[in-house]
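Example 9 (inverse folding). The structure is encoded as follows.
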């Protein structure tokens, strides 16, 4: 297995995890899987989370400091944020078009809606409470939350990644502004730490196929329980909705991103897809842009030829504020729930969804399930019953895997474009197929 490229190892791990999960359900090995296999998936996720904050902090500091002047940082930052916001708006609009054309919400009967509402009442209440806490905050609270009162406190919580990014940017800018001879030893220190962190990433990624196997085995067992047919029946009932979301996410990966890569990135999409594929597979299995960030950065630099100066700035920022897949999903889910409840949304309400989903994506934590909390805010803004979120909780974990894959692909696409426009795209050193 060592001779196989990483993405093939991850694919094999995914396949075996699914097979084991289904067999475990049939053979009544659920408890064994949850007790003795699933924990290794949790350990793998924890290892990725362990390295996420140090990676973002050190990569951004070294990346910003390497830009050497404030004007260059401003130019790259403007390009990056502009591209991220543009792709997010396009994703939301695409989701609204698809859900209005296919109308998946009309497929639910009142009996089935009531069944889901009662089954997921507790989870719905929890998500509503989380969203209510966010809603009660003032209009500038999101801006306040970006600035940490204690950087060490922010570094202990992966959901505070924006605060870590703020400090890293501030630190890097300050390094540029002080005399070169004084900044040199600090730069050398962080470059050395960066090398250590990247080596840790290599060690963690060697365990990725086994971690992915354990993750998916546990997921299938929890989803199916003692009756695999229950999972199949549930997916069939919600299949129409899932298909619409999947079509939208597929169009992002197979149409929108290729157009951007080819026209603005001046790169063949086949080469881009090969290069980012290992990160896509890890994103699919972990459902976390933050956890996948180490692999995304490695793929961008080694497989796509993106200069470290660009990748260390654009990708950590993208893992926090660029959620194209999540934004598309929120648009489809909001209108789907409205359709299920027989609510006709006006054009202004749907435009409000575009704005809210775009802004919500900026503050969404790059961890599994964060999109659900932000979706509640989108629903409230559009006047859609929050209880309707119970309808989509069942397949959300699977769709979360797909939309995270889109998020990571979008990050890499923007990094490719920025690198091309800055003349920082070089021949790749490590594509393996």
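The amino acid assigned to each position is listed next.
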């Amino acid at each position: 297995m060592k001779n196989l490229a990483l993405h093939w190892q991850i694919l094999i791990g995914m396949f075996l995890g699914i097979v084991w999960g289904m067999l475990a359900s049939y053979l009544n090995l659920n408890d064994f899987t949850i007790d003795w296999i699933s924990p290794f998936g949790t350990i793998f996720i924890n290892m990725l989370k362990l390295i996420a904050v140090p990676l973002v902090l050190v990569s951004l500091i070294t990346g910003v400091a390497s830009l050497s002047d404030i004007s260059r940082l401003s130019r790259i930052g403007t390009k990056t944020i502009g591209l991220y916001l543009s792709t997010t708006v396009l994703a939301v609009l695409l989701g609204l078009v698809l859900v209005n054309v296919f109308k998946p919400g009309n497929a639910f009967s009142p009996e089935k809606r009531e069944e889901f509402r009662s089954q997921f009442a507790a989870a719905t209440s929890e998500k509503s409470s989380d969203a209510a806490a966010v809603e009660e905050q003032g209009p500038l609270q999101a801006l306040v939350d970006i600035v940490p009162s204690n950087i060490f406190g922010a570094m202990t919580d992966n959901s505070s990644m924006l605060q870590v990014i703020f400090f890293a940017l501030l630190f890097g800018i300050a390094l540029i502004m002080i005399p070169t001879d004084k900044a040199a030893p600090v730069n050398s220190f962080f470059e050395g730490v960066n090398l250590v962190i990247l080596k840790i990433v290599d060690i963690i990624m060697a365990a990725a196929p086994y971690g992915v196997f354990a993750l998916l085995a546990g997921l299938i067992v929890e989803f199916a329980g003692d009756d695999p047919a229950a999972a199949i029946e549930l997916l069939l009932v919600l299949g129409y909705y899932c298909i619409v979301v999947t079509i939208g996410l597929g169009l992002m990966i197979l149409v929108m991103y290729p157009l951007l890569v080819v026209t603005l990135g001046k790169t063949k999409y086949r080469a881009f897809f090969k290069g980012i594929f290992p990160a896509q597979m890890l994103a699919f299995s972990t459902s976390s842009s933050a956890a996948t960030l180490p692999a995304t950065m490695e793929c961008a630099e080694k497989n796509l030829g993106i200069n470290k100066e660009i990748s260390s700035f654009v990708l950590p920022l993208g893992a926090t504020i660029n959620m194209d897949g999540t934004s598309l999903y929120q648009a489809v889910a909001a209108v789907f729930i409205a359709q299920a409840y027989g609510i006709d949304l006006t054009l202004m309400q749907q435009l409000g969804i575009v704005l809210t989903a775009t802004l919500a994506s900026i503050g969404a934590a790059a961890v599994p399930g964060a999109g659900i909390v932000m979706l509640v805010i989108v629903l409230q803004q559009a006047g859609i019953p929050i209880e309707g979120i119970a309808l989509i909780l069942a397949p959300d974990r699977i769709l979360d895997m797909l939309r995270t894959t889109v998020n990571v692909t979008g990050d890499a696409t923007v990094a490719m474009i920025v690198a091309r426009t800055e003349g920082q795209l070089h021949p790749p050193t490590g594509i393996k197929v």
